[in-house]
Amino acid sequence: MSSDHIEKSHENNALENVIVTGGGSGIGEAICLRLASRQRHIYVIDIDLKQATKVATLINEQKFLATPILLDVSDHLAVSDVLNNLPNPPNILINNAGVSAIGNVENTTEATLDRIYSVNVKSIYNCAYAVIPIMRRSGRGGLIINLASVASSVGVSERFAYSMSKGAVLSMTMSIAKDYVNSGIRCNCVSPGRVHTPFVDNYLSKHYSDKSSEMFAELSNSQPIGRMGQPGEVAALVEYLCGPHSTFITGSNFPIDGGFVTLNS
Question: Which of 24, 158, 259, 261 could form a disulfide with 52 if both were Cys (CB 3.0 to 4.6 A apart)?
Fold first, then answer.
């Protein structure tokens, strides 16, 4: 099949209904704004309705479709109820919601581990559990993109719980891709390195208020390319994976990390 035929077929599809979890800020916000188009309805899901509404409003002001949804993606019953009652069945799911925590195994509390697991791991199960049957019933297949991390692949200091969770994201991605390839459902993950988001700024101001500039430079230089990534760069990769030229890709992991995994030696 030629690339022209693939692109034409993609354009002739019905409206794509896209779920983005954690869509109210940071990388999730950038993904929502990047994917907004006349061919897509973006469901901006966030635990902060004000943030989700802000992003949806920006999209609607461009004359595109977006709906903000307040949802705790770690709540299995709530996720099932909301995603099974959307006005249009979703055919793209982007699992972006996530939290981080600092600490090694000795100083990571059980409560912290449970929180990281609930948001970073269980949320992906919850959303996939709800959405995959919808995708199968539609007869159109579907696409799932999970946001993992460089911590899925290499050791990162003082990120025990976070690394555990992101390793699980990578494994779940491959498992879903394998189990549902014959149903026309593809699943891939994107693994960012350090990305300059509000989380980074808040973390530095909280823990390094007296030397935030120095720590920002240190974090930037931990990437061989010499800087942090930008949310829009991650969103551009996600956009490609949602587009007509990526239909041969499934079960794959895409690091976007300034060389962090392969060049730090």
Answer: 24
Per residue in 47-85, pLDDT (tens digit) is 999 999 999 999 999 999 999 999 999 999 999 999 999
Q: Which amino acid is at 1?
A: M
For residue 44, is it within any domain? yes
How many domains does one find in the chain? 2
Evaluate whether residue 263 is within a structural domain: no
Residues 189 and 60 in one domain: yes
Question: pTM of the prediction?
Answer: 0.93
Residue 73 shares a structural domain with residue 146: yes
Is residue 162 annotated as part of the catalytic site, yes or no?
Answer: yes
Among 162, 180, 203, 208, the one annotated catalytic: 162
